[in-house]
Amino acid sequence: MTRGAVQPLVRPPRLHLGRAGSASRLELFFDLAYVLVVLELAHSLYTDLSWHGLLVMAGLFTAIWFSWMGFTLYANRFDTDDLVFRLAKLGATAAIAGCAASASDAVGKYAVPFAVSYLVGRLVLLGLYARAWRHVAQARPTINVYLLCIGVSTVLWAVSVAVPAPGRYWLWAVAVLIDAVGPVLATLRDDRLPLHIEHLPERFGLLVILVLGEAVGGAARGTHDASWAAPSVAVGIAGLLLAASLWWAYFDVAATSGANKLEETAEEDGEEDGDDDPDPTTSRRTPTSATTSSSSATSRWRSAWSWSASGSRVWRCTRRPPGRRSRPGSWPAGSPSSTPATR
């Protein structure tokens, strides 16, 4: 929203053609809910360090990743920052917070709360695209692809609430696969909408920073809760170094090379078209943005693993009794320090 300009509280969506590459404060607040989900999934992994635990975390993380991508791609094109959009985004934040509250046992006793929370997020995104379809006529061919894929995915999540395991989880997998296919099909269209590449890398980078920050926090909490025992200090330092290495690798290697590739692609597009395209964020750069997206997903996955691995090693140092589970940031009773860590 332009500073000093008085605008109506409710404004119809419009297709952005020349958006600045700056994430809004609402987007930063929205990301916090997803970071909470990643934290809970990491905690679940280090309480079940097995192939089953790894598979569950990878599957749920993939679902959460495509949920975040869905809202990010919509906002990249149609964010009006009006009252309707803000309320929808806050409602989606609450839904993802519900996913975080149930992620610790999403394939167990909290499967229905997780599915319902995820379903609410899908319904919000479906409503946003329906609103954009109504007001942005030139975007309807591409929006139709998203409406179809999100609609089918939403139905599958709704049906999964009433289906017992393991059928419920197969429905989740199919729904996530459809969510993944949607943006690809939209990109392959000849009349596809432009994505604003300057905005997307910043969104990925901010989420990576948030998750890496929690990885550093996990290392610090483990050291504190173990009363600075020598093994916990060593593990904390290792966790910090790993998080720093991931930060360095992403922002100095992956992000930089991705930005350079985007610039090269833009220059090639300009030469091929004779500079006929006034919008530097042309849709032909979308495949490159997909590569940047996958790099960001990998970085987030590794940062979540670093947090969980750090916690698991501290757990071994204190010999927590089998079957006993503590919440993230706390230490079991009878340990050297049972004072809860502050988040």
List keywords for this structure.
343 residues; 9 helices; single chain; mainly alpha; disordered C terminus; 2 domains
Descriptive notes:
With 343 residues, the protein is mainly alpha-helical. Helices cover 71% and strands 0% of the residues. The protein contains 9 helices and no strands. The two termini are 32 Å apart. The C terminus is likely disordered.
Short characterization:
The protein has 343 residues and is an all-alpha fold.
Oligomer: single chain
Structural category is mainly alpha
- Rg over CA atoms, rounded to whole Å, is 21 Å
Morphology: globular
What low-confidence regions span 5 or more consecutive residues with pLDDT below 50?
269-343
Count all strands and give the number: 0
- Integer tally of domains: 2
Biggest sheet, in brief? none
Number of helices in the DSSP assignment: 9
N to C succession of SSEs:
HHHHHHHHH
Give average pLDDT, whole number.
76
Gap between N and C termini, in Å?
Answer: 32 Å
Q: Give the proportion of residues in helices.
A: over 70%
Classify the beta-strand content into a percent band: under 5%
Question: Secondary-structure blueprint of this entry?
Answer:
Layout: H1 25-47, H2 51-78, H3 83-102, H4 111-135, H5 140-160, H6 167-188, H7 199-225, H8 230-273, H9 286-318
Keywords: Membrane, Transmembrane, Transmembrane helix
Biased composition (Acidic residues): 265-279
InterPro entries: Low_temperature_requirement_A
